[in-house]
């Protein structure tokens, strides 16, 4: 249920459980961690989803069984954030719950206009993963982070763009748009691309 396509230095990872809104089980999350941890040689890593939702976060039954507070979420976002290559979240639809972590850890976030963004962790009785509020606040500021995490607000794609939660709206194929953005990095010397990313940290 996690697809991986390798095209030279471009790795495209697809969450593929569209019948369940691409909600994540422990096995799927473990697989995502393994891919991110093995992607040191990837020049560009793109994360996307199958169907009309990027990911609804944790599978509800799995969440009740302990996945909601699993260290796998933090392991995944940490592995993505540490990659030397360019990381792009190609959000084909709504992003919810714990799936926010992997997206916040990416360098660039693209989204389709109909996407929604929400993180109802407090309502469900859990704390967010430790790095998520910090990464979100770095992008959109502490007040807007509280609006989402404490106010429980569902943010439209247009509002997310204004906030800085996403970097560009794509009215079309969001993965193809990610490929276009990836082209210069893929064509550059690896050490130059990695050096620029390190300078931007």
TrEMBL record:
Pfam families: ECH_1
SUPFAM superfamilies: ClpP/crotonase
Domain of life: Bacteria
Classification via Gene3D superfamilies: 2-enoyl-CoA Hydratase, Chain A, domain 1
Designated name of the protein: Enoyl-CoA hydratase/isomerase family protein
Listed InterPro entries: ClpP/crotonase-like_dom_sf, Enoyl-CoA_hyd/isom_CS, Enoyl-CoA_hydra/iso
Organism per entry: Thalassovita aquimarina
Annotated family: Belongs to the enoyl-CoA hydratase/isomerase family.
Segments traversing the membrane: none
């Amino acid at each position: 249920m996690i697809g991986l396509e390798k095209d030279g230095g471009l790795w495209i990872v697809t969450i593929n459980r569209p019948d369940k809104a691409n909600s994540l089980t422990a096995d799927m999350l473990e697989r995502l961690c393994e891919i991110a941890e093995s992607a040191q040689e990837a020049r560009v890593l793109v994360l996307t989803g199958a169907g009309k939702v990027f990911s609804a976060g944790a599978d509800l039954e799995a969440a009740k069984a302990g996945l909601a507070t699993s260290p796998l979420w933090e392991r995944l976002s940490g592995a993505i954030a540490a990659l030397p290559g360019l990381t792009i979240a190609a959000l084909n639809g709504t992003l919810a719950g714990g799936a926010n972590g992997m997206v916040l850890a990416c360098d660039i976030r693209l989204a389709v206009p109909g996407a929604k963004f929400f993180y109802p962790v407090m309502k469900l009785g859990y704390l967010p993963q430790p790095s998520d509020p910090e990464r979100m606040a770095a992008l959109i500021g502490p007040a807007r982070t509280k609006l989402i995490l404490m106010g429980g607000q569902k943010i439209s794609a247009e509002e997310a763009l204004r906030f800085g939660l996403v970097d560009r709206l794509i009215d079309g194929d969001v993965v193809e748009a990610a490929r276009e953005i990836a082209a210069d990095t893929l064509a550059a010397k690896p050490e130059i691309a990695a050096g620029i990313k390190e300078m931007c940290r």
